[in-house]
Amino acid sequence: EPTREKAEANLLNLLIVDDERSIREGCRDVAQSIGYTTYIADNAEHAFRVLDSTCIDVVLLDLRLPGIGGLEILKEVKRHRPETVVIVMTGYADREIVLQALKADADDFISKPINLLQLRTVIDKALEKKALKEELLHLKHMDRLKSDFLGLVSHKLRTPVTSISLFLQNLARGIGDPQDPSFATTLRLILEESDYLGGLIQELLTFSEVLLQEGSAEIRPHDLGAMAEAVAEDLRYLAARKRIAFTFQVEDSLPLLQLDERRIGFAIRALLHNAVKFTPEGGRVAIEVRPAGEA
User: Fewer Cβ atoms within 10 A, N terminus or C terminus of the chain?
Assistant: First the structure.
């Protein structure tokens, strides 16, 4: 089985795959001096066992191994865990195989015999490259989210704004008799569209604030029951207008939960608002807040 050596200062995991013991031990010493948890394998089978059981951040990989070669290991790593940094180790005479490794998306290479000081620099540079890639992917993801959000805003706002605009245009032209029962019906529908528009704008603002925010979540102790009750009170008016029986019940002495208030609050509001919105007129919405597992 591959041996495992514990480093003290870092949570990053590094796997060394080489059939030469001296190289494995030299690379291990350098990796541990940086602060890695190191794993060692002397062939492909050992390497695959480590990769299957452990989240590896960096692989130092000898391309010339007995049995399954390093190039196949590289391809498997990049196929299943493309975010893993792979640094190939090879001799000066292996130029062609180095080119194949780079085409297979190896992150860097270092020539044998291994210069241990150079190895530390190569690892640091490869990790900087990985961090840059992750940041670019994050920026692309955020850009896509913002584009989707703008498309959602445009789609959601178009219908109620068009309805209200047409009604106001008719009023301005003198079309419509306030004494006509159909006028009162249309006016009620326009008021509903206006209320819907106001609620939609608030939801979109919350969406942009919560789901598009960058940075880590603000985890603090909060009363989930109180959060849900505040949202329920805001929705009682909407439920009453649809003649929906709306009940809310929360158990006493619920424990405080560690959570991000804005994100969880957004999820609760979206859930309860949809419950009222999609319940038919005259229906019933019942909300209970209790510990999991209770009947």
Answer: C
**pTM of the complete model:** 0.49
Tokens representing 142 are 């955020």
> pLDDT tens-digit profile of 169-196?
877 777 777 777 888 788 877 877 777 7
Residue 74 has pLDDT above 90, yes or no: yes
Long-range contacts: 156-165, Cβ < 8 Å, 24+? 156/200, 156/204, 157/197, 157/200, 157/201, 160/193, 160/194, 160/196, 160/197, 160/200, 161/197, 163/189, 163/190, 163/193, 164/190, 164/193, 164/194, 164/197
Coil, helix or strand at residue 248 = strand
Q: What's residue 209's pLDDT? A: 64
Burial class (CB in 10 A: 0-12, 13-18, 19+), 36: buried
Give me 246's structure tokens.
Answer: 């709306």
Kindly report the backbone phi and psi dihedral angles of residue 220, in degrees, each rounded to the nearest multiple of 5, phi listed first: -145, 165
Please report how the helices 70-80 and 44-53 are oriented relative to each other, as an axis angle in degrees rounded to 10. Answer: 20
CA distance 128 to 134: 10
CA geometry: angle 127, 129, 132, nearest 5 deg: 110
- Is residue 24 within 8 Å of residue 18, measured between CB atoms? yes
Count of C-beta atoms within a 10 Å radius of residue 201: 14
